[in-house]
What we know:
Blueprint: E1 11-16, H1 21-31, E2 37-44, H2 48-58, E3 62-65, H3 71-77, E4 84-87, H4 89-97, E5 102-105, H5 113-122, E6 125-128, H6 131-148, E7 152-154, H7 157-165, E8 174-181, H8 199-202, H9 212-220, H10 222-234, E9 242-246, E10 252-258, E11 263-267, H11 273-281, H12 313-323, H13 327-343, H14 349-362, H15 371-392
Parallel strand pairs: 1-2, 1-5, 2-3, 3-4, 5-6, 6-7, 8-9
Antiparallel strand pairs: 8-10, 10-11
Helix pairs in contact: 1-11, 4-5, 5-6, 6-10, 6-13, 9-13, 10-12, 13-14, 13-15, 14-15
Domain DXP reductoisomerase C-terminal: 267-383
Binding site for Mn(2+): 156, 158, 227
Protein name: 1-deoxy-D-xylulose 5-phosphate reductoisomerase
Amino acid sequence: MKDSNPSHAPKAVTILGSTGSVGANTLDLIGRDPDAYTVVALTANENVAALADQCRRFRPQMAVIANPERYGDLVAALDGTGIEVRAGADAVIEAASLPADWLMGAIVGAAGLKPTMAAVERGTTVALANKECLVCAGELVTAAVERCGSILLPVDSEHNAIFQVFDFDKADDVSRILLTASGGPFRTRARDSLAQVTPEEAVAHPNWSMGAKISVDSATMMNKGLELIEAYHLFPVPEERIEIVVHPQSIIHSMVEYADGSVLAQLGSPDMRTPIGYTLGWPERIATPSPRLDFATLARLDFEAPDPDRFPALTLTRDALRAGGSAPAVMNAANEVAVKHFLNRTLSFLGITDVVAETLAAMPARPLADLDDVIALDAEARRRAEEAVMRRA
Ligand SMILES: NC(=O)C1=CN([C@@H]2O[C@H](COP(=O)(O)OP(=O)(O)OC[C@H]3O[C@@H](n4cnc5c(N)ncnc54)[C@H](OP(=O)(O)O)[C@@H]3O)[C@@H](O)[C@H]2O)C=CC1
Ligand SMILES: CC(=O)[C@@H](O)[C@H](O)COP(=O)(O)O
Ligand SMILES: [Mn+2]
């Protein structure tokens, strides 16, 4: 029987990257109100054990493992469940294309670009955590959102904060976006002292529990540069009016300043279930278990200017945004390669931004044609970044 009140029908949801930090937080919320959702598809890269556990609990129509070598393991793990099991990058795109009311894009890196585009082109409401998509192909993604009438909801905590206080009907009255940055685990360290830092030190974020790649990005402050580009594509504000301010406590998640001097901010404990919940419930608000702020015991909120001398990623990213075209995609690909090598201990921490700078210098900015162009450019930038890493070995 058809529900006479469609707003009470369970929301059909797909989660790309369900086994990661954002994906698991999304399922945590869904699991707290199981009657409100049906799960269409869950996807992972290679973590069969976690994906199979999630599938047994949430019973999606389809489970996809991107690494085809893990297909047999997933089939065996889900034997008898009736869940359709698929493998490979194309199967992730198929999962993203299944009819759903809401899709969480929580794959890490440019690998999420094609699946995100598939969901946008299907007209699905996309909650996007996967910032690298917008960095690589912001114009193409936002144009597809317009063309296909889909809705893009920012999950990244800063962008979600801005989204909550940005008056799109009065965008001309916005004078500045103030993107807050924690400063990462090395905020107070001298640059020379960073030469020997280990992956364990770099992933130890002071406030947030996140996947390894974004944690390293926070440590180099590349994350804030990626977020600058992400904000540029999500909000109608010119680049020179998007400023970064270091706020070590990560309580204010970003701010919007208006022409009259008013500054609107969104605050909350550093728990991704608040911004994820905002997008999951949108346009309503839903309850989340995120710890509440206690202003009586919140000792202080500090702010300081970012330091591009110690964190050159801040300059590299703004320059790439200004250069436009291919530059942000090249920068992102080189960063993904460099972070992978740092985590594998085959590149030093300071080598990360060196490799990004070298790759950008070798591939001057040019206009982007289409999605295939971005994918080809991404592959070429990865090849050159690998060479830059090898030269340092
Ligand atoms: N973590 C956070 O709090 C925040 C994250 N973000 C952004 O959200 C995205 C996800 O971050 P996070 O959850 O921390 O990352 P994780 O590394 O924790 O999770 C990444 C997810 O993507 C899957 N995955 C990795 N590579 C591929 C691939 N090639 N193809 C398909 N799936 C793949 C992983 O599968 P498997 O587990 O099998 O490896 C996993 O499910 C990133 O873009 C990040 O910048 C933004 C704001 C906050
Ligand atoms: C939770 C989230 O959105 C991350 O992007 C977080 O903001 C990282 O913190 P910093 O990059 O500010 O250290
Ligand atoms: Mn963020």
